[in-house]
Design the sequence.
């Protein structure tokens, strides 16, 4: 009996050694899609030939790797304001450390020049202070680390024609404004807005620029936001399911007519929402 046990243990050790050797021979590989992103793009990073768990960083931004069959994938956001250049990508698996780089290339976004009456452009000191406070409140949301809630593909929150694209640079009365960091969907007042994925309602607020606003936290640094709403149907802290009606389209805040402005942040990076809903995610 004792002999059999020893043989079994020896066999087990041999087979473990065999497995370890197989893992070592696999060449670690990092694949970026797209391989040369531009500012505002979303990149899927796929790591193969390593043993998990896998951790990663892009600059100071944490990457969240999800295990798949033979690989690990992470969603990386390249902020709209990123200067073209080469950026370090640091990936650490339990058995290997892989240093890689991401080349961010130039991406041309359209420019729109507008001349507007002064009173439409200049804010009163009160409104400026309010807008500033609200901007700080929103900016404090992105660094929070939360568990993954999203599951599978992100869906379109509101079908419709895109009236203002992501990244449009506006020059109003000769002054360059912040680029458009979301998309405007042409829609009628009262039309439904759907949650693009599972998430937690992290902000419901009435803000100077964005009017009635909702921000959803989908976990792992992915947030979606919806502005100028006529009616909000959710409360802060509430869990939503993919496809739930969260609000109605409106024209609240600084808006000239009913439309849905929606935006996406990935680890704080402003990215094109239309790219998020095109991703094929597990
Ligand atoms: Zn907009």
Sequence:
């Amino acid at each position: 009996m004792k002999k059999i046990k020893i043989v079994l243990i020896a066999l087990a050790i041999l087979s473990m050694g065999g497995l370890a050797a197989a893992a070592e021979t696999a060449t670690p590989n990092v694949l970026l899609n797209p391989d040369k992103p531009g500012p505002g793009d979303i990149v899927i990073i796929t790591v193969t030939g390593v043993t998990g768990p896998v951790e990663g960083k892009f600059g100071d931004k944490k990457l969240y790797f999800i295990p798949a069959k033979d690989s690990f994938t992470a969603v990386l956001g390249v902020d709209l304001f990123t200067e073209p250049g080469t950026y370090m990508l640091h990936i650490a698996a339990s058995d290997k450390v892989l240093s890689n780089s991401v080349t961010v290339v130039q991406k041309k976004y359209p420019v729109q020049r507008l001349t507007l009456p002064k009173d439409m452009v200049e804010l009163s000191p009160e409104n400026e202070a309010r807008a500033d406070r609200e901007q700080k409140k929103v900016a404090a949301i992105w660094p929070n680390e939360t568990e993954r809630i999203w599951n599978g593909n992100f869906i379109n929150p509101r079908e419709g024609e895109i009236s203002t694209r992501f990244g449009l640079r506006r020059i109003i009365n000769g002054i360059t404004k912040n680029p458009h960091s979301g998309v405007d969907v042409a829609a009628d007042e009262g039309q439904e807005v759907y949650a693009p994925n599972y998430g937690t309602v992290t902000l419901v607020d009435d803000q100077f620029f964005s009017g009635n606003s909702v921000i959803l936290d989908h976990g792992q640094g992915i947030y979606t936001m919806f502005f100028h709403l006529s009616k909000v149907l959710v409360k802060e802290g509430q869990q939503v399911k993919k496809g739930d009606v969260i609000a109605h389209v409106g024209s609240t805040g600084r808006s000239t007519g009913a439309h849905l402005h929606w935006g996406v942040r990935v680890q704080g990076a402003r990215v094109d929402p239309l790219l998020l809903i095109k991703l094929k995610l597990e």
